[in-house]
Amino acid sequence: MTEIRLTELDKDLIYVDTKGGVRFDHTRPKIIYADYRPEYEKTHCTCGGKLLVHRRREYTVWDIPHGRTYVKIKIKRSIKKCRECDEEKPIEIPFIHHKHQITLRLHQQIVEDLGPKTFTSISEDTGASARMIRHIFDEEMDRIALIKIRAPYYLGADGSRRGRKRQKKGYVLLADVENRNIVGFAEHCNQESIANAILDLDQIENIRAFTSDLGKDVIGAMKFVSNVNMAINGWEIPIVLDRRHTSVQFIYALELVIAQVRGSLNDRGQFVQDLTLFKRRRHNLLPFQRNDLTEWLNRFPKLYDAWRIKEIAFDIYEAKNRDDMNCRISELNDHISRSLCSSEFRKAKEYVNNNDQMVLSYFDHPIKVTNAYTESMHNQIKRIDSLGYGYKTATVFGKSKLARGPEGIRTDPPERKRSHKKN
Prior knowledge:
Blueprint: E1 4-5, E2 13-14, E3 22-24, E4 31-35, E5 51-66, E6 69-82, E7 88-90, H1 104-113, H2 119-126, H3 130-145, E8 154-162, E9 169-176, E10 181-186, H4 191-199, E11 209-212, H5 216-233, E12 239-241, H6 243-264, H7 269-273, H8 275-279, H9 287-299, H10 301-314, H11 322-338, H12 346-354, H13 356-360, H14 372-387, H15 393-402
Parallel strand pairs: 4-6, 8-11, 11-12
Antiparallel strand pairs: 1-2, 3-4, 5-6, 6-7, 8-9, 9-10
Helix pairs in contact: 2-3, 4-5, 6-10, 6-12, 9-10, 11-12, 14-15
């Protein structure tokens, strides 16, 4: 087939034979007339009869818009008929979608916009109907459902809720924390639904570790899958407790001490301004901020003990190996027992001691296993849900998958934006 390439500036790239004519109607907004005639036409039917031109039909298809101007292509093609079997043989046009009245390049653009944009906004941008775009979305969901996603080496799971305050429904997001991919969703936040979502992955024996918080349903589902893998392959899958959730327990205890100190002050203005200094690490503070922090810690001994316990708890995950981490946990327990704020840090101490094996599993793997990426994906789901003023659960999960790439999975890590400091 001979290609005629029109100007790229007008986005009018269509494929027609040199025998056909292409002309522009400037009185109407961007309508392209094309008479499609292939270079090599079939002259005989499969039955051996001769094909003759029976009639000509005109099709109107949508193309990629030029700026804010919609583009339509009106194409005439011949429909031939066999003299022997009387069967009609329409000529296939390769650059038009076989099901929808749009070009293939417009179909590709719509698929790329299905994730970050709403159906109505895509319709306003391209000119295609919102009903057609919804059908394209359903077709992509059916195609992605047939893709068997391989189980990652390190699987993260985290639950959240979406919807109105009185109608919030729980869901669990599954992600590959090493390559930063979405691998699945559990539409209900219960143990059975989460376990089924994990078992639906291909080759679950590839999973080397789970990472999550101490959610009852999530941990129960991970232990169930680990037992299934134990029965099939003969080894259990370890669970790594996310370092963020361990650190948050000590931040909560520190806030209790800060609240007590704040209540004992008459002039609280300067103390309220310096609240963030107690939660940040000392090596991340500027010199003048360290001086302010030292003044407050010297003034309140109980606040100093609480801040010191927080620093030791954060240093647990900076250990060199598993034995070093175990020694730091013992040092943390001794410091809490001898401090002035042992009652405030009682729950945090029990949190670490009761789940010490999950905490120590952090050093059993070549990478730093953390569930931070899985939790960050909830913001994308909320943003997609808010753009459409609420979607069904299956729809918002499908749009989240399409936002990651053409196959519903993104293989390359995201590019981090550089922060520009103001002068």
